DNA sequence: TTGTATGCGTTATCAT
DNA sequence: ATGATAACGCATACAA
């Protein structure tokens, strides 16, 4: 079914049908109704490809996700969900591109086939080839997370450094003097994954400020790794009385490891961190943590992207969020020796 | 950048460029190289919209997911990941459509705007308006899960009835005579969600066959609901010594509830079910369960869909998977009273 | 082996 | 207020 057929049946020209639909020029109520009747009857919808070709825009956003074979974390999933939601709200569709390596077919299709009006990139590395590629292609984009040199790009991120620092200060205030950081996986750190590096920065700075002794560990992004990590921590650093973490996926394992070691939280050991609310609330006892506002971040990313598409030459904007730390039940005064 | 510009710079006609790219007719090696040089230099890629308009296909698949605001379950996420992966492997892009209600804008855009060559539908209800809509629109589609009347549609599903029945038989073999089913949420049951209904069927049939006494409970799809459910179960039915479940998201809560009640698994209580491997292995002790093969299902769904797109009039095909039950550590002989 | 011409379905410009 | 027509970028039937 195409617009010509509608026009024929309604006894008008194609342009009249087009204008009746868009309202961009006045159409007699009478003919408008006749056209609408035909459209309803035949269930006509403009062909998206033809419209995209003519208008030069696709009404579609690209969302670049980590390679699908890797299990997405809850946080990543939260971004996907909120981006899709926000896009749907603006009557935009979302094209998914699983892209990991630097020269990815799907990514290239999206970028250079002009299949989308703009792109949202997540899981940004400090040095990220995809960012460079998008800049070169001149395609509007917004990143969730930011690169080492963030001034030229449009992004939204959580201030991991500040949040982890706040957690450290909170624990120091409670009297803890020996604190561990349970970071993301060694692979992510090696790959220059921003949140892992910034968490470490914030940790180091706060620890130095307060004159604490500390140790920083990497930990795989899953429950078994969390359990192992706690075992190692208890063994190698028995003096440690508190930990901060940005590794939400390890939390169930951390909990299990502490339970198995007979460590009571927060009586014997305190823990705080940054995690999606879901993970924090499922922790036992519930985790004192800054809740990553995935919904707000995804929504903001779409908003920023739409602005950028509308005005590609406007100065870039950033959004660095510092959500409050929700005081729950996993932190308490340092145990008396 | 368009094909005409490439042709101009290479000193050939547009069709020659097109044929050089598609290989659908011979092109002298010399001119082919000259064209390729220009293409490489300008980083040209055919415009997807123009190609879609001309060819009548978009090289894009639609994936209809539950409304993004609801948190996707691990299993749903597994489907999304494997579908995206399989599609990427076939050089196809995936357009996401979050669709819950019956008249959804995003869904309608995808279906009637011809934005995709075919659709994969998940979270199927026994009666599903979206299935009817797709049939009416004549758009090829495959469902993950199947409706009450599955003969006219192409689908891939797990045989929940058989799997749950097998779990019941396994427990009966171990001497259990009083068994509970922990089903999905009451809302899903009320909405006619297939897996919930088929689990109940299989449960009822096996229980009847073995002459067991039983009770069937619904339980919200999250940890707290699982905990509550176990409390209720222990209180109302203290005689129950085993449970089967299809509610993976409730597993952490079920585990916590059993621990809090001082119930040792499998010494005092056995539990088995159907769950993504991840959930089964994170359960303590590890859960005896049929592992839902999300990867295989997503891949198969894409395969079926591609077949269907290639031959829309071929007879429909189904895939009803019955993965083996992995014997882990959560089931044991009935406790002696 | 290569070039020319046409049409895919829309929207926008120009003319009426 | 409406109609005719061009143009978007590509693929292909047809011509040379």
Automatic annotation (TrEMBL), chains A, B:
Keywords: DNA-binding, Transcription, Transcription regulation. GO terms for molecular function: DNA binding. It comes from the Bacteria. Residues 1-55 form the HTH lacI-type domain. The keyword Transit peptide does not apply. Transmembrane segments: none annotated. Gene3D superfamilies: 3.40.50.2300, lambda repressor-like DNA-binding domains. This is LacI family DNA-binding transcriptional regulator.
């Amino acid at each position: 079914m195409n617009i010509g057929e509608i026009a024929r049946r309604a006894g008008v020209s194609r342009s009249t049908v087009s204008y009746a639909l868009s309202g961009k020029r006045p159409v007699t109520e009478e003919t408008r109704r006749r056209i609408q009747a035909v459209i309803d009857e035949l269930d006509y919808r403009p062909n998206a490809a033809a419209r995209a070709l003519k208008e030069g825009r696709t009404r579609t956003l690209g969302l670049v996700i980590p390679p699908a074979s890797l299990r997405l974390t809850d946080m990543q999933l939260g971004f996907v969900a909120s981006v899709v939601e926000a896009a749907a709200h603006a009557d935009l569709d979302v094209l998914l591109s699983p892209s990991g390596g630097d020269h990815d077919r799907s990514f290239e299709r999206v970028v250079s086939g002009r299949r989308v009006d703009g792109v949202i990139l997540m899981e940004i590395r400090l040095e990220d080839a995809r960012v460079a590629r998008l800049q070169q292609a001149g395609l509007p984009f917004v990143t969730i997370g930011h690169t080492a040199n963030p001034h030229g790009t449009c992004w939204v991120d959580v201030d991991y450094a500040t949040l982890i620092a706040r957690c450290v200060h909170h624990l120091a205030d409670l009297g803890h003097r020996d604190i561990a950081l349970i970071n993301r996986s060694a692979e992510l750190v090696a790959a220059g994954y921003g949140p892992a590096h910034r968490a470490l920065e914030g940790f180091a700075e706060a620890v130095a400020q307060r004159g604490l002794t500390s140790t920083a560990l990497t930990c795989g992004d899953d429950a078994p790794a969390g359990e192992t990590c706690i075992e190692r921590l208890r063994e190698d650093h028995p003096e440690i009385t508190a930990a901060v973490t940005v590794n939400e996926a390890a939390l169930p394992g951390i909990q299990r490891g502490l339970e198995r070691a007979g460590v009571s939280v927060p009586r014997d050991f305190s823990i705080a961190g940054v995690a999606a609310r879901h993970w924090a609330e499922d922790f036992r006892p519930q985790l004192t943590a800054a809740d990553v506002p995935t919904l707000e971040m995804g929504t903001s990313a779409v908003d920023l992207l739409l602005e950028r598409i509308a005005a590609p030459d406007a100065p870039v904007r950033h959004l660095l969020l510092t959500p409050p730390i929700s005081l729950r039940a996993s932190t308490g005064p340092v145990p008396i020796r």
